[in-house]
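Tokens for chain A. Residues wanted.
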């Protein structure tokens, strides 16, 4: 092949395994102890994961559960000396130290700074509950101090789902790196000048060093001097920052912060639903009382109508009996009987008296005929007078004058309050019935 060396091609697994053997079998690394500052400390299923940092260099460390029980307590910011065996994590092409022992080597620089600031702020009373502002009962506007990332996305997505009524003003800022504390403080001051109800300071987690700006004095002072209540949600870590200590309310993650606002909304919705049910119950109770009153009034009206009709019928019967007693036919029958008797007597009388009597009879008959005519005329006038008097009690006669009888649901209607707008009524006229719908009712005082 013209002197060219043959190229070697190996698979990834074989190369990774080879590198792992180089690291694990390297005598220079065997039994070595490493000093550094603890960061990104996490515990899971009995195992301990942390970073050992020095300046900008990082060494990944793992403590298996059997070894974790033997280690002394330690936390982020502690300076420690660890001993163990080096190996590789092939899935990520990472090398790491499997720690078997740990010795406290003193307090780390950041942790010492944290403790000094914490003591200072506690002396000033910044952690006192009495200093903190109450959260609003129903916030409508929120200012979000954030950096682009998963935490902010989680907050906004959850807010849209759980509390869509809240208006959110976005204030983006840098949240890590040298001088980040000044940017965060300036963003909080900008939010403080806005017409909002709550300021939310959110960060989606990170290493101890990444989150350390939230322990520094500019951020703490900005939260304390804010014009509005401040909620911190610096999430995905068990550490509590000094910003959390002075904040008016703390949630573990941005998502939890959004859930907090959603729970406020849910509480108000539950209260509204409770009040609605109470109103519905009282309306139903009022309707039942009104229905009972309506039924009682309808019953009373029906009895009154029956009594009135009965009274009119009794009066009509009395008038009929009086009319029968005064009828001209009865009087005529009595006079005809008397005339027949007189005629018999006259026929029994003798000659002269017969003619005289006949004349008198003829004269009497003429008088009787005239009297009969006069009596019929007088009786007719009286009958017409009595008929007119009786007509005043006749409902049908009243209808002929243009009046009408109004019925609702088959019952005579006497009061406008007994019917409501939209109800159907029937009007009985002199000739026929009219059905109509009520447009409006008015009530006389």
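Reply:
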């Amino acid at each position: 092949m013209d002197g060219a060396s043959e190229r070697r091609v190996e698979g990834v697994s074989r190369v990774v395994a080879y590198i792992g053997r180089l690291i694990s079998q390297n005598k220079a690394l065997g039994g070595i102890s490493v000093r550094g500052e603890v960061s990104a400390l996490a515990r899971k299923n009995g195992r301990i994961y942390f970073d050992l940092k020095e300046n900008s260099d990082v060494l990944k460390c793992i403590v298996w559960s059997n070894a974790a029980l033997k280690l002394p307590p330690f936390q982020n910011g502690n300076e420690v000396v660890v001993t163990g065996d080096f190996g590789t994590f092939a899935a990520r092409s990472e090398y790491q130290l499997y720690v078997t022992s740990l010795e406290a080597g003193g307090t780390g620089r950041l942790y010492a700074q944290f403790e000094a600031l914490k003591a200072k702020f506690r002396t000033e009373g910044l952690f006192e509950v009495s200093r903190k502002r109450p959260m609003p009962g129903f916030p409508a506007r929120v200012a979000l101090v954030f950096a682009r990332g998963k935490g902010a996305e989680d907050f906004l997505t959850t807010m849209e789902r759980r509390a869509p009524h809240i208006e959110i003003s976005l204030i983006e800022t840098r949240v890590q790196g040298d001088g980040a504390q000044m940017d965060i403080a300036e963003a909080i001051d900008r939010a403080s000048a806005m017409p909002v109800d709550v300021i939310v300071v959110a960060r989606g987690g990170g290493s101890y060093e990444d989150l350390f700006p939230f322990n520094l004095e500019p951020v703490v002072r900005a939260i304390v001097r804010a014009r509005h209540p401040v909620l911190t949600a610096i999430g995905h870590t068990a550490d509590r920052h000094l910003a959390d200590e002075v904040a008016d309310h703390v949630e573990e993650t941005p998502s939890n912060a959004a859930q907090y606002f959603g729970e406020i909304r849910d509480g108000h919705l539950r209260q509204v639903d409770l009040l609605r049910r109470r109103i519905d119950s009282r309306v139903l109770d009022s309707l039942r009382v009104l229905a009972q009153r309506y039924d009682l009034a309808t019953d009373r009206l029906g009895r009154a109508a029956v009594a009135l009709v009965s009274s009119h019928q009794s009066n009509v019967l009395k008038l009929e009996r009086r009319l029968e007693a005064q009828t001209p036919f009865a009087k005529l029958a009595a006079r005809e009987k008397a005339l027949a008797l007189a005629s018999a007597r006259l026929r029994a009388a003798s000659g002269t008296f017969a003619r005289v009597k006949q004349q008198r009879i003829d004269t009497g008959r003429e008088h009787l005929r005239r009297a009969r005519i006069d009596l019929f005329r007088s009786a007719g006038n009286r009958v017409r007078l009595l008929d007119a008097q009786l007509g005043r009690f006749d409902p049908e006669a009243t209808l002929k004058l243009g009046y009408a009888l109004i019925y609702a649901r088959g019952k005579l209607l006497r009061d406008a309050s007994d019917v409501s707008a939209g109800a159907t009524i029937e009007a009985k006229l002199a000739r026929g019935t009219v059905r109509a719908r009520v447009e409006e009712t008015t009530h006389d005082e």
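Residues 71 and 102 are 6 Å apart (CA to CA). The longest strand covers residues 94-107.
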